[in-house]
Specification:
There is one protein chain. With 269 residues, the protein is an all-alpha fold. It has 2 domains: 49 residues, no CATH class; 209 residues, MetI-like fold (Orthogonal Bundle), CATH 1.10.3720.10. The protein contains 13 helices and no strands. The longest helix has 42 residues. The protein is globular, with a radius of gyration of 23 Å.
Length: 269
Amino acid sequence: MVKRTALYVTLVAGAFVSVFPYLLVALTALKTPRQLSGTEPWEPGLPPTFANLDRVMHSGFAGYLGNTLLMTAALTAGQLVFTTFAAYAFARLRFRGRDVLFWLYVATMMVPSAVTMIPLFLIMRELHLVNTWWGLLAPYLLGTPYGIFLMRQFFRALPAGLEDAARIDGAGPLTILLRIVLPLSRPALGTLAIITVISSWNNFMWPLIITSGDDTRVVTVGIAGLKGSIGVDPNQMTAAALIALVPMVAVFVAFQRYIVRSVVLTGLK
């Protein structure tokens, strides 16, 4: 009983530390400037106000949300399509240098993304894609090493006998992939989709570098841009952060089992 109590106390303390920053964001976003200066950060403002949220939405932030939704949808679709084809080729097709090419590609996960930002920007500049949707999407649209690794591990775990039976019936690689492998891969595809949605929504560095206009600006860059020349308006910035946070919290609560499953797929299989 003592050990169980100590375990739950530790878990509750860890959960509180994790949730407390988000609670501060919500509390600050629903306070007036006078309430913010007259109360402790963890005290709610009474009565709560939604004026900060309304002011943020009427300052162009709604357009940033639309841009982020469009970017997230495009990247998720691209990841699911191109990653699936590449992973199936690495898992099932036989060609010279397959394993060497795969592990060289996966090894790029060891390179920090900040190292490749300048070369990517120079490439986009030479292609005249700076501040365009193509420049924003290009580095991630055709798949990522993590996504290909995740799907390859899942494909390799599927029984090869199913594919052999399909080949006996005259099915080619594309037919096998579309009609046999993909219907069995819905859990892995769901996992990849959720991870892509979260990473795309939270992406900050590349959109900050490659975009400069409101037509392609996303929420993370929009929140950073709320800092004025005089200083930071805590109410406005936390209101914008709260608006950007709500969709991701909803996605996590609804699909958290897929996120946990991604660890199982890549770690055990």
